Amino acid sequence: MQKRPFGNHGVQVPVIGQGTWNLDGRNDAGAIEALRRGLDLGMAHVDTAEMYGEAEPLVAKAIEGHRDEVYLVSKVLPSNASRAGTIKACERSLARLKTDRLDCYLLHWRGGTPLEETFAAFEELKRAGKILSWGVSNFDVDDLDEALEIADEGKIACNQVLYHLQERAIEHAVIPWCEKHGVAVVAYSPFGSGSFPAPSSSGGRVIGEIAQAHGATPRQVALAFLTRRPSVFAIPKASSAGHAADNAAAGHLVLSAADMDRIDKAFPLGRPKSLPMI
C-alpha cells in the first residue's frame, strides 16, 4: 500500500483508507471482517465518527490487538462542539473505540459554536495526549480562511470533503488551498454513495476500458484518479472482505498521463461552486 505524508504533520498514512459511514446495523460480523481484511492489506487509516451510530464499537472490535498499526480518526458533531462538549464527546468516542488516543479528531461540519471554542478543546485534548492532531470536515475556502486565522499555520491536519468522479468541485479552490497550507485532503464517499458510473454510460465505458488495460477494476481506477495528487487520500467503505481487497488494490495502481486525461474529459470538472456535502 502506497503511503504519503499526511499534510505537514509528517506522519505517513496509507493513500487508501477505510470509511465507516453506514457500516452499522446490517451485518456486524461482515463489517468487522471487512475492516480486518483492509488492515491486513495496508488500509490502516480508519475513519469513523460519533454520528455513525454503532460504527465506533465495530471499529474497536476490528482493530483489537492492532491499535498501534492504525491511524485512527473520529469526529465530533457540531451540536457537541463547545469547548466542554468537545472534550466530553472525545472521551465518549475513546471509550467506544477502546483506545486511549485518536490520531486525528475532526469537527464534522460547521455549526453554531464559534471555532475558537472547538479548536481550544482540540488543543486541550492534544496536551492531554487524547488526540495527536486535529482537523476539520466539510470546510469550504471561506471556512478554512477563518480556521487559519484562529489556529495559525501547521495546526490543521486535514480537511475531509466529498469527492468522487462526478463531484470534483474541490479541485477548483479547496485542494489548492489545502496544498498551499500543508493540509491533507481526505475524500469521503469516493464512489458517489450509490451513483458510481454505470458500465453502459459514456464515463463508465472509459473507466472500464482503462481498468481492463491495467487488469484492474473500475472502482480501483476511480480511486487511483482521485488520489493522483500527493495531498489527497480516500476512505472508501467496504461491506465485505472481498470489497476491501478490491479497494486496497487501488493503492498499487498507477495511471498514465493518457489515462488521467481520458478520465478528466469523461468526467468534466465543471464550474466553481460552493462546497458540496452529504
The main sheet orders its strands as 3-4-5-6-7-8-9
Topology, number of strands: 9
Q: What is the terminal separation in angstroms?
A: 28 Å
List the helices and strands in order.
Answer: EEHEHEHEHEHEHEHHEHH
Tally of contiguous helical segments: 10
Q: What is the CA-atom radius of gyration, in angstroms?
A: 18 Å
Shape: globular
Structural class: alpha/beta
Mean pLDDT across the residues is 95
Q: Runs with pLDDT <50, length 5+?
A: none
DSSP strand content: 5-15%
Query: What's the quaternary structure here?
Result: single chain
Helix content: 25-40%
Largest sheet: 7 strands, parallel
Task: Characterise this structure.
With 278 residues, the protein is α/β, with parallel strands linked by helices. Helix 1 packs across helix 2 (55-63). The model has no long low-confidence stretch (mean pLDDT 95). A seven-stranded parallel sheet has the order 3-4-5-6-7-8-9. A two-stranded antiparallel sheet has the order 1-2. It starts with a strand and ends in a 12-residue tail after the last helix. It is globular and about 50 Å long. The protein has ten helices and nine strands.
Brief description of this entry?
This protein is an alpha/beta fold. The chain is built from 10 helices and 9 strands. It has a 7-stranded parallel β-sheet. Strands 1-2 form a two-stranded antiparallel ribbon.
